[in-house]
Amino acid sequence: MPPPLRFSHYRVLQQDDGSPWLLGIGAMGVTYKAFDERLQLVVALKVIAPGKLHDTTVQALFLREARAAARVRHSNVASVLALDDTPGQLFYAMEFVPGLTLQALLQKRKRLPPALALGIALQTARGLEAIHRQGLIHRDLKPANLMLMRLPDVAAPGGATWEVKVIDFGLARALASAEKDETQVAQTQGFRGTALYASPEQCLERGDLDGRADLYSLGCILCEMLLGRPPFSAASLHEVMAMHISNPVPIEVLDLVTEPLRPVLEKLLAKLPSDRPISAAALARTLEQILPGLEPVSAAAAEMPDLDEPAPLRGPGVGAIHHPPRFGAVGEDHASTLVEGVEPPPARLRARSTQSQTKSIAVLALANLSSDREHEYFSDGISDELLNALSKIPGFRVAARTSAFYFKGRTLPLAEIAQQLAVDYLVDGSVRRAGDRVRISVQLVAASDGFPIWSDTFERELRDVFAVQDEIAGIVAKNLQLKLDTTAGEARSVDPEAFRFYLEGRQAIEPRSPEAVERGERLFRRALEIEPAFPRAMGALANAMVLRADFGFLQNGSWETQNALRWQAEQLADAAIALDPAEAEAIVSRGVAAWSRGNMPEAIRQVRAALALNPSNAPAHHILARALGANGELDEAIQHIRQALTLDPLSPRIADNYALALNFAGRSAEALALADLGLVRLPADQQLPAWRAWALSDLGREAEAVEAARELVGRGGTWVFYIACGILQRAGFQAEAEEAAAYAQAGPVMSHVFCQAALGRPETVVNLVPRNLGAMFFEELLYPAMWDSVRDSAAFRQLLADLNLTEANARAQAWRARKELALAQETRARGLS
After folding, report:
1. Of these residues, 16, 17, 85, 140, which one is catalytic?
2. pLDDT of 324 over the 60 cut
3. Which own/partner contact pairs does 279-282 have at CB distance under 8 Å and 24+ positions apart?
């Protein structure tokens, strides 16, 4: 048997096979069960991960965690006993808590008796009171961070012989602004916490948090203890955060809570911190008053299952790494819960029990180690191409570039990045280019513990870069026991200079502005001048031309220019597909071109074909959603836009279009929540405020909707003025509606069309619409109730016939009729109950 690991006077205990007794593996370190030979007691020893030992930022965060926890001394908080920050080693010893987490208990029990749940909440509140008294906020309170420990012959609140311990101060931060050093700033950039239990202010990434954020999290935990589920759950982290921000607690949730506890739960889950209990101490006093009136917990109900020491994990070098199960996009098994009209995600997002359903990955932006910092485009491009290669693996969800690259330059633990992207694995590494040779160092990391599963370095000629990317993808697939799609196009060499212009074009086009698209188009053309038979560059150029056509139409309404660009893009896409039938980007461009001609069945067929080659193509899901919506197939459209957001959870533009689709569907509360969250990331966006105003209007919040419509007009721009027109007219402000519509006359023709539709003028609408428009931009006339007066006219029906949209409109109106019937039946059922 090998000798035990030692850290100063701490001896790591061993399992029967001699391997170290692992209690947990986190973003910054490993926790062992160890023996303090000086104090002669068992401790939990947290040691910084070997790979992070020389990372100064992680070192500082590790020390902050230890020192924050050490400041708190309370029976309901796990104590820090000692810290060793000797150079070359970094660890701290904590009180060892023999027992199980609340999360483990809830997995066994699902629901707890009210007295038992309240007893846990009371002890947690007391622990929070001690934490807050030290000027700290926990920020990650959840069932996994509450330990339950037996007490010998002592009755704890609720009648059970156990005690609660709050653990894990990895995300704790100080209230005092004086303590906000560089480490604190790095630690608080972006979302922090666990989405299912995060407060609205955490989801909004506000910096002025206080202890009431922890109380909201405790409310989510209390809800789960009582009902078997937290108050909000959905298919993606993005959606759950949006619901925390805007959705009221569903009435059906509150109706299941007994009366003494309902007002407590409502207060804890208030959206505004000022509406919650003023402090953890005040909450504890309230719970102490309620607890005696609840039915005592029976001996059988109070008995905790398997309250022995936590089972050891097996760590690197001693067997398989323990990976906590991932059940849904938000990291817990609540993704299929139906809450306040939120439809369960499609089966491929819900049921993740099989191998193909459980695996997901993100390729982070590889670090540029080249001597020339201008080669940043090259490292980004290699990352992007590797992402595309991995996307060809069947049944493997790959996070989109927009979301994966969001973390570039941010110092965050890999486990936190994985949580925000809702993935199980990460690819990280670096790229070094020297002349026409490239060295790519990559590692495959398990998100649950931050430890590498595999790493290697590849050095090749630049012209063979596509081959090495496919080689890396194949090795990743093999390590994850997945099968790489062998039907993809064969890897081919490429001229290094052409590849350089192609990668520069990919980086240049990323902002998706008109200027960026034109610059990207020029670079793709230069790549094709050097190597004319370069299908990847041809597909990228076709996509750029499609984007430029859209921008041109939206800016100046020039349909002729757009039509010419789309025709050229279609020809280029055909040439790319002839060279490489698996060139998915070119297939999508061909589909969009068919859409612009009004051939919806062909457009949908083409984009589906692209998704068959690359199911993780978020833009393709996004485009398919818009095409399906324009074809009257809204339910499937919403499934695909949701899938796009699951793949690209940090994309404001996809969130924008998801909010629009939800408004089409009458799911206004969800649309409002997504718009609010999108505006946090993209505050200058012109469209999100429009969808937000629309949702407010449909929710009956007229005063807020009118104010939002007036702000929309004041922001400038013309494309979404029609929303302001419709809201103002419906609220009786006809003159203001007319004024808003007047602005639109100087902009794109469809903006003018939509404004006239919102004002209820069918003849004007029919006369304005170009007959060669096809179905582009037209789904926004198929669904909104504010345009029924136009939709029901004979002139509008003739317009639909001219545009080949009669069947699409019939499907859309049939969908609306079914939705209205279901709503009426639900209303009657509630009245009878």
Report:
1. 140
2. no
3. 279/129, 279/132, 279/211, 280/125, 280/126, 280/128, 280/129, 280/131, 280/132, 280/211, 280/214, 280/215, 281/125, 281/129
